[in-house]
Write a structure and sequence with these properties.
Helices cover 48% and strands 4% of the residues. With 166 residues, the chain is mainly α. 33% of the residues are buried. The N terminus is likely disordered.
């Protein structure tokens, strides 16, 4: 006799598109955070400071990073992995992350990049990346959030074929 599989609230084979997107962003952010600590992948690694515009290290030679910047990417990555477990939290991660990146984009436009206000730090490439991430994550959160979460075996109020008898 075959028994149906069910999800206990974790990642299952029946992930929604929002969950898959949150998982993908989580992996990417975590990877970027780790890569920011690897010399060679991060140019001018000896110039990697905890925070501030004086940190001249650049991930892939393009995106200005600091220890703080890398740690924030890793925390976002862990959040994405954790929140991808449920459809509603995956949607929240995509929308919340998109709004965060929109705010970072606006902040990056308003501050002088060579000032103490640029504590993360950002450069022009970071600003444009933040703009793209904001748009993509918000749109994914809206459009992929319309899916309904797949029902699990436990949530079926009508036991029927395949249920385990008492």
């Amino acid at each position: 006799m075959a028994y149906p599989s069910y999800s206990s609230g974790g990642l299952s084979a029946r992930r929604t598109s929002a969950q898959k997107a949150a998982l993908a962003f989580g992996i990417i952010f975590l990877l970027l955070g780790v890569l920011g600590f690897i010399p060679g992948i991060t140019a001018s690694y000896s110039q990697l400071y905890f925070a501030g515009y004086a940190s001249e290290a650049a991930l892939l030679g393009i995106f200005q990073v600091s220890v703080l910047h890398n740690v924030v990417h890793m925390l976002l990555g862990f959040a994405g992995l954790a929140l991808a477990r449920r459809h509603s939290s995956a949607k929240l991660f995509l929308l919340g992350g998109g709004i965060l990146y929109a705010l970072l984009f606006i902040y990056g436009l308003l501050i002088p990049l060579d000032s103490d206000a640029n504590f993360v730090p950002f450069n022009t490439a970071d600003n444009w990346l933040h703009a793209v991430l904001a748009v993509v994550m918000i749109l994914l959160g809206i459009f992929l959030g319309r899916e309904s979460e797949p029902s699990s075996y436990r949530s079926n109020p009508n036991p029927g074929e395949g249920s385990i008898p008492n």
